[in-house]
Specification:
The structure is a single chain. The protein is of the alpha/beta class. The strands form six sheets. It has a five-stranded parallel beta sheet, with helices on both faces. The protein has a five-stranded parallel beta sheet with strand order 9-12-15-8-16. A two-stranded antiparallel ribbon has the order 4-5. The protein contains 18 helices and 18 strands. A hairpin with a 2-residue loop joins strand 4 and strand 5. The longest helix has 31 residues.
Length: 468
Amino acid sequence: MRADHPILIVDDEKNIRRTLRMVLEGEGFEVVEAGSAAEARGLLGGERIDLLVLDIKLGEENGLDLLTAVKAGDLGGDRDLPVIVISGHATVGDALRATREGAFDFLEKPLDRDVLLLRVRNALERRAIGREVATLRAAAGQRNEMIGAAPVMAELLRQIAKVAPTKGRVLVTGESGTGKELIARAIHEASAYAKGNFVKVNCAAIPPELIESELFGHERGAFTGASARRRGLFEVADGGTLFLDEIGDMSLEAQAKVLRVLQTGELVRVGGEKTIRVDCRVIAATNKELDREVASGRFREDLFFRLNVVPLRSPSLRERSEDVPLLAAAFVKQCCAENGFRPKRLSPGVIARLAAHSWPGNVRELRNVIERLVIMSDDEITETDLPPLGGGPRAPGSAPMPSAEVDLRRYSTLQLRDFRDQIEREFLRMKLDELEWNISRTAAALGIERTNLHKRLRALGLSRDEKS
């Protein structure tokens, strides 16, 4: 590994600096020298340095004081700069102080060439990994950022700020694709559990026969295929937050066991006997109306009351259409960064078209459209790049969309739930016909998971055989 930026050698002995320079430059590293602490301070405050090789004795000054200043950020540089401390007259106390102040390594003179190069490479590799982790964290933070200036978003953020510092359980409701997970993450990050794990469980994606093993863990031999003990996600989330997404799809048997953990803070692994205590915050989310699920016997009333201590509703994108330009611009920036593209921009016409769309798939659908546009377009994204959105003016040359108008009178004899199912059935059939019954493409267009689409098709009795 080679340094992209110099290694700074700080030693008041010119011969030592010259020897170190020859060794390091011989291996392809770029080197900068400083003969005093004052000279080093000037370089550290004005240049980007990848590694500091620092002698303890710098004339009348102690090099460890410079180490302390670097790690405190007093020089305006990078606190995470790795520092290898060297000395020909070090005491045990010096070595302990160097370690305590954050030195990466401590070497005694005379320096062994191979040992020096090994420690230098290790320090630079650690620095590169640290930068990569920081970059990934920054990207994840951008992707998980809640964006919006609409009144409904301002009120939601106010509610999150009030509930997050407490231990109150939260039930997040809202349509698919509105960002319920972002709400849960925001609560976690502003809570006393923020230092712990944020563990997401998609209850709809786990087969009913495996949900208990996933949540509570299992002992070896508990069932066929259980070849080793496994911790459940409640244990993984101990000290953090467990996010139970699509809680309305959990089986009644699993609901009973989740209720017990919420009541007692204790669980027993599948096939086990030992009681295990856990302390994690539980946040649940659903796109179903759980009170109706309770009334129909598909969801336990006692669990509903346990989860629904603080209800939060994630607004649909239709309710905050003024946020569409903000979201679109943020997604363009994110997608360009993730794909290594030069910055791209949306034309005013595209922004107007996006803002006029109703977005049935909500924020997830918008992001999918933006990602497609970023990948397939030039530097400026124009209306000719837009796929058919439905509603509002069409892009030139795009195919017309089926009419979205509905004659409600023909549904006048239906009860509300049957009306909803019928409308959803017709809408899904239209989208599936439009995309030639390609389930993956249809799920992406709707902004939902394939498993959820399959589930809705089964629930509505909709199959390709009867599509006409």
